[in-house]
Amino acid sequence: MQQTALITGASKRIGKSMAIHLAAKGWNVAVHFNNSEKPADDLIAELSYKYPGQQFNAFRANLADIDEVIALIPAVVGVYGPFQLLINNASVFDPGYLIKTSPELFELQININLKAPFFLMRDFASHCKRGNIINFVDTRITNNKSNFAAYSLSKKGLWEATKMAALEFAPAIRVNAIAPGVTLAPEDRDENYLLNLAQLIPMKRPGGIEPIIKSFDYILENQHLTGQLLFADGGENLGQNT
Questions:
Q1: Chain-wide mean pLDDT for the chain?
Q2: Within the chain, how many helices (H) and strands (E) appear?
Q3: 214: number of CA atoms within 13 Å, CB side?
Q4: Predicted TM-score (pTM) of this structure
Q5: Is 227 in a helix, a strand, or coil?
Q6: Torsion angle of the four alpha carbons 20, 139, 107, 13, in this order, in degrees rounded to the nearest 10
Q7: Does the chain have fewer CB atoms within 10 Å around its N or its C terminus?
Q8: How do the domains of the chain map onto residue ranges?
Q9: What is the DSSP string of 1-14?
Q10: Residue 208 region, left (φ>0) first, then alpha (ψ -120 to 50), else beta?
Q11: What are phi and psi of 104, to 5 degrees?
């Protein structure tokens, strides 16, 4: 039986790379997007052409809108039936020191980065009953820097929710997390920006997608792993070697 994965934010960047990786391994992929309709359609066309025996569909949902969040899992189940893998990848990453954080900024970060994954985990457990959940957190959860205060708090919360869900949903559902670090340059920056950031981490170079994909495969293949966090960050979580 073919397995199916729902990837939030699957039309670009890390989400797109995971969709391509899973498709190559024989999975059906439910591609979630919000504003990126054309990239989502292009990805589905590409995957459908390469893997005609598999099923690829796009699902739009604004993860800042709880009604649309709650409708997402039932929509995917309506097409594929109960599916096997939920990847909470989509997030927003906006700067703001605590003292300058507006209620609107706080709510956006919490709603998309924590509230949406929380309810998607809930609904995956209710509708699909068994399988895997992989949440994307951030190496920032290991420190208390406040230049992305609301974002960092949302990712700290998601890691705590990961452990709670792993305990509650076991043994039928395994729940784990991946924490990327210096991976891809922001869309408005070039590679030099990333290379400069990487000089501050132990490995002194950006990781790219490969460490994330390898961490992802390890989680899927290790059937006794739950409630764990894999840092794909070149040692950034350890701090700076001064």
A1: 92
A2: 8, 7
A3: 8
A4: 0.94
A5: coil
A6: -20
A7: C
A8: 4-232
A9: ---EEEETTTTSHH
A10: left
A11: -65, -45
